[in-house]
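Practice problem: predict the structure.
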Amino acid sequence: MRTEYVTLDGAADAAKVSRAAQVLRDGGLVAFPTETVYGLGADARNPEALARLARVKGKLDGKNCSLLVGSVKQAEQLAGGLSRTAQKLARLYWPGTLTLVVPRAGGGNVGLRLPEHTLARSLIAECGFAVAASNATLRTNKVGDGVGRRVCDGLSAAQVRAAFDGQIDLVLEGGSAPKGKLSTVVEVTDHSVSVQREGAVSEVDILLTAAPTVLFVCTGNTCRSPMAAGMCRAALARRPVEEGTMPVRVLSAGTNAQAGQPAHPLSIQAMAEAGLDIRDHRATLLTPELVDSADWIFTMTRAHRESIVEFMPFCSDRIQLLSQANDDIAEPGGRYIERYRQCRDTLANCLLSILTIIENGR
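Answer:
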């Protein structure tokens, strides 16, 4: 067969992408760039196309191909819903270089990725269905020490064409793959996260951000939120944790914090009286990244919650007042230790119900 080579140069590019989508609909194989490496794509709904893709890649079957999706909603539909941890990893790393392996609706697992590359996303949108994809890398047969020599790194269309000429239907030339690293593959179950292949995103970053995360928010991040965080950490440390369960990460931040400021001296004193040490605390300014990383966000007042939701409305289902009675917890302020003791005790009472929410959601 003849492999068609199409260069995207700004002239009638939409028509060229449409042509590639039609090839996929017809059961063909298309190579195209992503932000990691070039991919080999097939219609994920077509068993014959999947089998052909597997043969071209030298795999036993097409089941281990990931599916490139056009939206988180499409990923949720294919998986029959995403767990809390999978939703967070998607929130933090999609669109981008993370492949999530999650339970598939109807049984088994499925690898899903929402690519960042403009061309890849245009192709998926034009298709209207998920594209089954395998990286367009290729090794020789195993020799000597059993490790085949890589003959195609999938970094350019010309390299891919040379490696797969006559075996695939079309190559979309869209420039060099910008990152040149494979995606990181992470398997996510209800209670665990396992990095199956480290790629463009480090394993350290994945395991850190995947941990269940509680975020307490006040204004300056020098009294209420650090006190709440300190007591929450201590309470969680006293609770038994099931084997294999990720420990909870507890953070605090302020909507108007001066980064690096220590906790208020009277906050430190009030906490010390309760046997807790927050002297090492340093204020952190609340950022969108912190909000995205949190599974539960507890604010001290309605105004804090409203100010966050105004700029990040999609976090509204993860953010609530720390007081389950929906009462504002006022800043202690002033020069009197008694106000800080009262604030500490109010926070402690609120945390009793919060701990139950966290434990039930882990």
